[in-house]
Write a structure and sequence with these properties.
Blueprint lengths: L15 H19 L4 H5 L9 H24 L10 H7 L7 H19 L4 H4 L2 E4 L5 E4 H22 L3
Antiparallel strand pairs: 1-2
Helix pairs in contact: 1-5, 1-7, 3-5, 3-7
Length: about 170
């Protein structure tokens, strides 16, 4: 994926020098969207197969943590192959719906800072290191793509949060 037909995010439009800054901004941006919203509204699913705003925030937190670990592996190992994160299964298995919104926002901010720290200051050679990403199908990408993909997840799901909150 190099462009998202649903949200319009274009990977090529994000310079590698900006990846870390955007990653680091997600905590504040999600807090801005979710703070002050009634907790029952944060937990409400608009349809059975559509996540709640809280579940989207939990997902983004986990994406940032998983992508951080994948980036670290790709910077050390030659062409690592990563298992899927099982995004849909995590919602139930990790109990996203039962989490405390304030805790999730703090964790999301921390996850954004942790992944940003990895991407900040990478060299061109490090951004070019290869990995195999297995979603939706196995494909070879570089660390720059992995960073852009993590940013896309955060941006895309901000839109989902706004949609489920009716904003």
């Amino acid at each position: 994926m190099d462009e998202c037909a649903e949200c319009g995010f274009r990977y090529a439009d994000l310079p590698v020098a900006r990846i870390a800054d955007v990653m680091g901004s997600f905590g504040a941006r999600y807090a801005e969207r979710l703070s002050g919203v009634d907790e029952s509204h944060l937990r409400r699913r608009p349809a059975p197969q559509v996540w709640s705003a809280l579940e989207y925030a939990c997902h983004v937190r986990d994406v940032l943590l998983v992508q951080r670990d994948r980036a670290l592996c790709a910077l050390v190992e030659d062409r690592p192959d990563f298992p899927r994160m099982h995004r849909d299964e995590r919602v139930l298995l990790a109990g996203y719906a039962d989490e405390t919104p304030g805790d999730v926002l703090g964790q999301l901010a921390m996850a954004g800072q942790l992944i940003a720290r990895v991407f900040r200051g990478l060299t061109a050679e490090q951004f070019a290191r290869l990995l195999v990403y297995n979603y939706p199908e196995p494909a070879e990408h570089d660390v720059a793509w992995l960073g852009r993909h993590a940013v896309h997840e955060g941006e895309h799901h901000l839109g989902d949060v706004e949609q489920v909150l009716g904003r």
